[in-house]
Design brief:
Layout lengths: L1 E11 L5 E12 L17 E5 L6 E7 L9 H11 L8 H4 L5 E4 L1 E2 L2 E2 L4 E6 L41 H7 L6 H7 L4 H16 L4 E9 L2 E2 L10 H6 L8 H16 L6 E8 L15 H10 L4 E6 L10 H4 L3 E3 L9 E3 L7 E2 L2 E2 L4 E7 L10 E3 L6 E3 L10 H24 L4 H18 L3
Antiparallel strand pairs: 1-2, 3-4, 4-8, 5-8, 6-7, 9-10, 9-11, 11-17, 12-17, 13-14, 15-16, 18-19
């Protein structure tokens, strides 16, 4: 049983006017059932969930908490889904699917209406998997002892590095397909759909999120001295979403070699969020620190094993004078409180709070765990040593991971934005936001 106590907190602007009333949910649950939804562990105002299997009939994405009045059409989402499908080294599945959403609720007349936004994405490949993924028992499938017979394309030779074995044991399944169909990165299609709505919301306030690949398969890409104004437009023009043409050629050659070897590659992307105001997140409690929330979001992406903010691990190797960003006056810059950092080694976050400087994350993805030249494993059906199953897969999905990482950042940042400024409608959120900028403008040197 879950009880929700709603406490209303009124926040006043610099002139003393009450400008924001927002709910702060305190969740109390019985010790015997301490459950909450996935998004409630990460988000405080927004809630999102996804449903669907990789080769099932469709994927579903539901986003709740978006203010009414946000202009939104299907193309706002579909363009992000298309970006997720790009990248040299992807498998044949990307040639089969052409992801597009159908709004089921929450949008009317080209605007959000405040209710949950539900989106449906059909899987074209479903027609080839209907017998295998049939929710009902196929004829003759139940054995006399009541034990289900294994279906075609059952996975018992579990893959090292995948959720196959751990999930099969945890959920007491005989066929790891019951695990891999949901553990598949295909699920991130639905995440990107929800995130696209959050990106659209953030753009209303001048917040732009971009990414590019900085490393792939042992090859570093040089970061431009001056970043392009539209990072995504520049990155998306590259088949590997990198901003270094020379590194791109070397990466493509490496992918071709590794593909012939039946192997896979990982890599790193950089995510940059520009236009955020100072003051999102909080230092007061561990679970309100924005850097922690962003790190958790990134680590939830399949195959992601590392996250850095700003200089990240390099900070541990330097002195304080070489790490911390010196501050100087910068009039008429309300987003940063009329100051600026001479450097941005902190990556736009101090004490779990945005500084107003660009927010910079580096996200590391391991090589995909499905190898066409399989690794050694155990066949769980026999207990004998075997070669792992070789499901259809990509050589690398690092370019797509960057788009997914953008999306996870958008979900967390839109939530932090609404946590700070509230609003049941876009008009109300904007009024609160404008009032906060006026307050910042008056603080230091104003």
């Amino acid at each position: 049983m879950l009880f929700v106590l709603r406490e209303v907190a009124t926040v006043r602007q610099g002139d003393g006017r009450p400008s924001l009333t927002r709910p702060r949910d305190q969740l109390l649950s019985e010790a015997s059932n301490p459950k909450c939804t996935d998004s409630e562990q990460l988000l405080s105002i927004l809630r999102f969930t996804t449903a669907g299997e990789s080769h099932g009939p469709a994927l579903v994405s539901i986003l709740e908490g978006m203010p009414a009045g946000l202009p939104l059409v299907a193309d706002d989402v579909n363009v992000e889904l298309a970006r997720r499908q790009q990248g040299y080294g992807r498998g044949r599945r990307m040639q089969i699917e052409k992801d597009a959403i159908e709004f089921l609720s929450g949008v009317r007349g080209g605007e959000t209406i405040g209710s949950p936004i539900a989106m449906l994405m059909h899987n074209r490949d479903w027609k080839n998997w209907q017998e295998i993924m049939n929710p009902a028992a196929n004829e003759g499938e139940l054995a006399t002892a009541g034990e289900p017979a294994l279906r075609k394309r059952a996975v018992t030779r579990v893959r090292p590095g995948h959720a196959d074995l751990s999930g099969l044991l945890k959920y007491a399944r005989a066929d790891a397909r019951d695990i891999l169909e949901r553990a598949s990165a295909r699920e991130t299609t639905a995440r990107v759909a929800a995130a696209a709505v959050c990106k659209r919301f953030l753009r209303e306030f001048g917040v732009i999120i971009g990414s590019h690949v900085t490393h792939l398969g042992g090859i570093d890409a040089r970061r431009p001295d001056v970043m392009p104004n539209d990072i995504n437009a520049a990155a998306d023009a590259s088949p590997l979403r990198t901003l270094d043409a020379e590194a791109e050629r070397a990466m493509i050659a490496k992918i071709d070699v590794v593909k012939r070897e039946g192997n896979t590659l990982g890599g790193i992307c950089e995510v940059i969020c520009a236009g955020l105001p100072v003051g999102l997140g909080s230092h007061v409690s561990w679970d309100r620190k924005l850097d922690g929330r962003l790190a958790a979001a990134m680590m939830s992406v399949p195959a992601v094993k590392a996250v850095e903010i700003g200089l990240g691990f390099e900070m541990a190797r330097r002195t304080g004078a070489e790490v911390h960003d010196e501050i100087e006056p910068h009039p008429n810059a309300p987003l940063t409180g009329n100051v600026r950092r001479r450097t941005n080694r902190a990556g736009g976050l101090e004490g779990g709070i945005t500084t107003g400087e660009p927010l910079v994350l580096h996200v590391g993805m391991k090589p995909i765990s499905t190898l066409m030249r399989p690794l050694a494993t155990v066949d769980v059906a026999t207990g004998e040593s075997a070669a792992a199953v070789a499901e259809r897969s990509d050589v690398t999905a690092v370019p797509a991971m960057g788009v997914i990482a953008e999306g996870m950042a958008a979900l967390v940042l839109a939530d932090a934005f609404l946590e700070k400024f509230g609003g049941d409608s876009l008009v109300e959120t904007r009024r609160n936001y404008d009032g906060y900028l006026s307050y910042l403008q008056s603080r230091i040197g104003g």
